[in-house]
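REQUEST ID: PR-0412
SUBMITTED BY: lab tech R.K.
PRIORITY: routine
TASK: structure prediction, single protein chain
INPUT:
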Amino acid sequence: MTFELPALSYSYDALEPHYDAETVEIHHSKHHNTYTEKLNAAVKAAGIEGKSIEDILTGLDSVSEDKRAPVRNHGGGYWNHTFFWETMAPNAGGEAKGALADALKKKFSSFEGFKDQFSNKAANHFGSGWAWLVINGDGELEVTDTHDQISPISIGHKPIMTIDVWEHAYYLKFRNARPKWIEAWWNVVNWDKANDRYEAAK
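STATUS: complete
OUTPUT:
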């Protein structure tokens, strides 16, 4: 199978004013597209054509060691960005919904307690990477982070939501003020999607 850049379910300007159209367009059409192209090259070089991206990322140990890094990096970049775009939506934000809301309150005492922990994880992540809400290998909700383009599905986690804290994700609008990006991002979180993912992962 040849991987293609997934289309967004909303226009580039749909997340304004919280996430600016110029950044969304460059992030999707340039950065995500580059990961897509380089993933196809890495998969071909590794001789693993025909597999889904999930099978590739959960089976990295089966890729020869000399070919593994490009597959992991570009495969993770492809999958993580696809997941990231779906974590957001126009006219979204607010608080968690449904079973996820109840689970967050139980785990973190309150929605605000979860939000603070997630924001701190994202703000304090060193260098490039991602902050995630996942169901970990013990079946528990956990706020965690991954470096570069490591995907949580490669380490046995079931992700619920994520924020991209690579500088290219926010630098045009927010410059070096990552906490301002994180604050704005909460206004576009697609809680319906997050709850659906939680229900499916339980």
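NOTES: The mean pLDDT is 97.
REVIEWED BY: pending
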